Backbone:
């Protein structure tokens, strides 16, 4: 496989070398450690002078294959895989930030990323400032002499706000900042942050990458120089991905493009249809012309993604009644699954915030997040419509 191959070919053929059994599909290496033919081989492998796998906390053929495939998709030199998306987010920050450093972060970051910034890194003397994801022009005014990193997601959860990646890339370059993006919602199939100068690309592979709700995983991608730092941090702090989960994920990636095409076409169908349904105040979807950043979405995303967010009339109680009336879709906190999943952020993930605090992160009381699955789109629509009627 070469770098000239297209995305789909990389997803399917980007596999490790075959073993002496010449298997067609990749075997699983459920082993904690590896043996050496001699003391000299062992010495040279430990010293990094000879290629070789030592121990599965450091690397493993299955995790290497998974990393290799995602790096080919993202166009990055190197990567490190972790046991969950949050371990990847944390490693991407902890490997670089020191006491006294400052982070500029989009206000619309994943809940646990917010907790890392406010509750964990703050204990170690790393400060942060939140900025508006939809207005990158306003960010420069918040840069301090000790600002080291820009942290963002695009599209955001659950409001589907976009961040202009080209502008972020220019800002990062001008001020010599590390551009750290969580690309989970878009996947490398729809958006390649490397094209805008991203230094660290983080994923929760638990979501669309596996896409079938089976395993937790994450990874950080970047240049070899950046990933060397992440690798050092992870090798010695131990968030390694299980080879079993990596094996599952390498297979999952072979269908990522096929699944994403259908997730996106189902989502666009639903978004368009829901705009005309009474009882729904607003529909958020990057590829709808009514989305305030529709033009930007068309520039930086190949399609609109698999998430649709709606605002139902009637606030918190109606939102909950709506969820209780759902028959086909699942009520679950996960996303990026073959099965359509609906959640009500105001009564679940964001229930501890006051309504005013929720509004500052773009969440209204009637907001319902839909992770659009691969069922027939008209069946999904019918379920949502009947739930709206039943919850009146
Ligand atoms: C789910 C998610 C995470 C965390 O990933 P886990 O695999 O659950 O640890 C991080 N960022 C985004 C955008 C997510 O959706």
Residues:
């Amino acid at each position: 496989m070469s770098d000239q191959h297209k995305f789909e070919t990389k997803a399917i053929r980007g596999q490790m070398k075959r073993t002496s059994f010449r298997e067609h599909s990749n075997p699983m290496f459920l082993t904690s450690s590896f043996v050496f033919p001699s003391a000299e081989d062992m010495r040279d492998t430990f010293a990094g002078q000879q290629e070789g796998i030592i121990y599965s906390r450091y690397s493993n053929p299955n995790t290497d294959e998974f990393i290799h495939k995602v790096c080919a998709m993202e166009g990055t030199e190197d990567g490190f895989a972790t046991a969950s998306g949050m371990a990847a987010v944390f490693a991407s920050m902890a490997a670089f930030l020191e006491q006294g450093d400052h982070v500029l972060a989009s206000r619309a970051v994943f809940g646990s990323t917010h907790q890392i910034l406010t509750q964990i890194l703050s204990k170690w003397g790393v400060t942060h400032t939140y900025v508006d994801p939809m207005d990158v022009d306003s960010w420069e005014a918040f840069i301090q002499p000790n600002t080291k990193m820009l942290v963002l997601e695009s599209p955001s959860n659950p409001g589907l706000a976009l961040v202009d990646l080209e502008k972020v890339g220019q800002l990062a370059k001008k001020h010599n900042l590390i551009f750290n993006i969580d690309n989970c919602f878009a996947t490398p199939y729809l958006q390649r942050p490397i094209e805008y100068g991203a230094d660290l690309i983080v994923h929760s592979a638990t979501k669309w990458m596996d896409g079938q709700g089976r395993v937790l995983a994450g990874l950080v991608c970047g240049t070899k120089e950046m990933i060397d730092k992440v690798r050092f941090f992870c090798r010695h702090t131990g968030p390694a991905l299980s080879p079993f989960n990596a094996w599952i994920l390498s297979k999952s990636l072979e269908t990522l493009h096929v699944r994403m095409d259908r997730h996106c076409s189902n989502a666009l169908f639903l978004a368009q249809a829901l705009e005309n349904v009474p009882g729904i105040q607003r529909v958020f979807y990057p590829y709808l012309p009514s989305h305030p950043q529709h033009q930007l979405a068309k520039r930086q995303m190949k399609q609109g993604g698999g998430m649709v967010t709606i605002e139902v009339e009637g606030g918190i109680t109606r939102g909950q009644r709506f969820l209780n009336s759902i028959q086909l879709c699942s009520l679950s906190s996960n996303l990026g699954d073959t099965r359509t999943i609906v959640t009500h952020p105001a009564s679940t993930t964001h229930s501890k915030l006051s309504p005013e605090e929720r509004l500052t992160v773009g969440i209204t009381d009637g907001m319902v997040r839909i992770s659009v699955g691969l069922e027939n789109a008209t069946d999904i629509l019918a379920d949502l419509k009947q739930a709206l009627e039943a919850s009146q």
Notes: The chain is about 35% helix and 15% strand. Residues 84-86, 89, 110, 153, 157, 182, 184-185, 204, 206-207, 216, 218 surround pyridoxal-5'-phosphate (CB under 6 Å).
